[in-house]
C-alpha cells in the first residue's frame, strides 16, 4: 500500500524537494494534504498537479482555502494520512507538529525550531503516542543513517525498551558549510548586508535559514535538534566546517569507528530516506556522486571568535534545556529585524546574548525581551 503523506510548507524549498521525491515514486507515495503560508495560488496549482483535495493556509485568502492555526492543525492531523512532513518555517510549525503526533502520525520534521523550543515535550509526546520522529535535516538524516543498526535504535524512533543507540556513541560531529563568509580572513559583521548573507554557496534555502547559515547559528540550532532527536549530552557534540557539503555528518562510536554519510548536497536525499525509512528506495531524483567530487574534501574546526552566535550556543548548552528556547526565539526576532533593515548583522549575537543573560522565561516573554533588545 502507498504511504499517504500530508505536507505542511508545500510552497517552500523543502516542500518542493518533498514533492519531487513523491513524483519520483508514484508507486510508494500518495500526497493527500498540502498546506502553505500565504501563497494561495501556488498551493492551488500544486493541489491540481498532485490531485490533492485537502488544503490549508496560514493566512486568510480569496480562494476559500481553510486558514489559520486550527486549519493547519487539522491538516497535520488528517485522519487518512500515514505521515506528516513538517516544513513550515519557524515557531508556526510547533502546534501542527503536536497535532500530528497526537493524531498518531509519524512526523518527518524539517522545522528545527520545533525541537529547539520544546524538544523535551515533543520527544515525550512522540514516545507516549508511539509515533516516530524522522529527521529531515541533512545532518540529522546523516547521523540517523549512521546510527541505524539491528542491535539498537536511535531515540527518535525507539519504541519501548529497545536497546539505545546513544549508548554506543562517543561523539557526534555535525558538519557545516561555513556559509558565505567562511573563507574571509576577517568578518566585520557590522558591515554585512542582507544580500551578501543571503548568497549561500551550497544550499538554496529560505531567507531565515540562509541568514542562520551565514552566522552559523543554524549549526547551533542543529546541535540542539541533535541533542533531542538522539538523546545526546552537550559534551558529545562537535562541529566541523566542511565547505564542500558532501559529508553530511559523522558519528564516532565508543569502539573507535568513525562513520559518515556522504551524498550530493540535495535535500531530496534526506527527505526520501525519511519517507522510505526503514527501507531505502531503488532510485532517487538526484545524480549519483562521482569519485571526482570526493577529491580534496576539507574539514576545519570553526573559529568561534569569528562566529559569535555559535560560540554563544556552545557556552549556553551546558547550562540546561532552558537555554534552547531562548537561543532560538532571540535569534528569530533578531534575524527578522536584520532582514527588515532594523539592525546590523553584528547585533544578532548581541540580542541573543542579552536574552541569555536574562535567564529562563516563557516563550512570549523571551520574544518580548528580544524585541526590547532589538529596539535598544
Ligand atoms: Mg542542515
Written overview of the protein:
It is a single chain. With 376 residues, the chain is α/β, with parallel strands linked by helices. It is built from 14 helices and ten strands. It has helices at residues 13-24, 40-50, 69-76, 94-102, 112-129, 138-147, 194-197, 207-215, 217-229, 268-276, 308-316, 323-339, 346-357, 363-375; strands at residues 3-8, 29-36, 54-57, 83-86, 106-109, 133-135, 169-176, 237-241, 247-253, 258-262. The strands form two sheets. Strands 3-2-1-4-5-6 form a six-stranded parallel beta sheet, sandwiched between helices. The longest helix has 18 residues, at 112-129. The termini are far apart. Magnesium ion (MG) binds next to helix 6.
Keywords:
binds magnesium ion, alpha/beta, 376 residues, 6-stranded parallel beta sheet, 4-stranded mixed beta sheet
Number of helices: 14
Q: What's the pLDDT, averaged over the residues? A: 95
Low-confidence stretches: none
- Structural class, judged by helices and strands? alpha/beta
Strand content: 5-15%
Indicate the multimeric state. single chain
Q: How do the strands and helices of this protein lay out in sequence?
A:
Layout: E1 3-8, H1 13-24, E2 29-36, H2 40-50, E3 54-57, H3 69-76, E4 83-86, H4 94-102, E5 106-109, H5 112-129, E6 133-135, H6 138-147, E7 169-176, H7 194-197, H8 207-215, H9 217-229, E8 237-241, E9 247-253, E10 258-262, H10 268-276, H11 308-316, H12 323-339, H13 346-357, H14 363-375
Parallel strand pairs: 1-2, 1-4, 2-3, 4-5, 5-6, 7-8
Antiparallel strand pairs: 7-9, 9-10
Bound molecules: magnesium ion.
Amino acid at each position: 500500500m502507498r504511504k499517504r503523506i500530508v505536507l505542511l510548507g508545500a510552497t517552500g524549498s523543502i516542500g518542493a524537494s518533498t514533492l519531487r521525491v513523491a513524483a519520483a515514486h508514484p508507486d510508494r507515495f500518495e500526497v493527500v494534504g498540502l498546506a502553505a503560508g500565504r501563497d494561495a495560488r501556488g498551493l492551488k496549482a500544486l493541489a491540481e498537479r498532485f490531485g490533492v483535495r485537502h488544503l490549508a493556509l496560514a493566512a486568510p485568502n480569496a480562494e476559500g482555502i481553510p486558514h489559520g492555526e486550527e486549519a493547519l492543525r487539522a491538516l497535520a492531523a488528517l485522519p487518512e494520512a500515514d505521515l506528516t512532513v513538517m516544513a513550515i518555517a519557524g515557531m508556526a510549525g510547533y502546534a501542527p507538529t503536536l497535532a500530528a503526533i497526537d493524531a498518531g502520525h509519524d512526523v518527518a520534521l524539517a522545522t528545527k525550531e520545533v525541537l529547539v523550543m520544546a524538544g523535551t515535550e515533543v520527544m515525550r509526546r512522540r514516545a507516549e503516542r508511539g509515533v516516530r520522529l524522522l529527521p529531515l535535516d541533512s545532518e540529522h538524516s546523516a547521523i540517523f543513517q549512521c546510527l541505524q543498526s539491528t542491535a539498537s535504535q536511535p531515540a527518535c524512533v525507539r519504541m519501548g525498551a529497545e536497546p539505545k543507540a546513544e549508548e554506543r556513541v562517543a561523539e557526534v560531529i555535525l558538519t557545516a558549510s561555513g556559509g558565505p563568509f567562511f573563507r574571509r580572513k576577517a568578518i566585520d559583521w557590522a558591515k554585512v548586508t542582507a544580500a551578501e548573507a543571503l548568497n549561500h554557496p551550497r544550499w538554496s534555502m529560505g531567507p531565515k535559514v540562509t541568514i542562520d547559515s551565514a552566522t552559523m547559528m543554524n549549526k547551533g540550532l542543529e546541535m540542539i535538534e541533535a541533542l533531542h532527536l538522539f538523546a545526546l549530552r552537550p559534551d558529545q557534540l562537535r562541529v566541523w566546517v566542511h565547505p564542500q557539503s558532501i559529508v553530511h555528518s559523522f558519528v564516532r562510536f565508543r569502539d573507535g569507528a568513525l562513520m559518515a554519510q556522504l551524498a550530493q548536497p540535495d535535500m531530496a536525499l534526506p527527505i526520501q530516506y525519511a519517507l522510505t525509512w526503514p527501507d531505502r528506495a531503488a532510485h532517487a531524483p538526484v545524480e549519483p556522486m562521482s569519485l571526482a567530487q570526493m577529491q580534496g574534501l576539507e574539514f576545519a574546526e570553526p573559529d568561534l571568535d569569528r562566529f559569535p552566535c555559535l560560540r554563544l550556543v556552545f557556552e549556553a548548552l551546558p547550562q540546561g534545556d532552558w537555554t534552547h528556547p531562548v537561543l532560538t526565539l532571540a535569534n528569530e526576532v533578531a534575524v527578522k529585524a536584520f532582514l527588515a533593515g532594523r539592525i546590523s548583522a553584528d547585533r544578532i549575537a548581541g540580542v541573543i546574548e542579552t536574552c541569555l543573560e536574562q535567564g529562563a522565561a516563557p516563550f512570549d516573554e523571551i520574544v518580548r525581551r528580544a524585541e526590547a533588545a532589538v529596539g535598544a
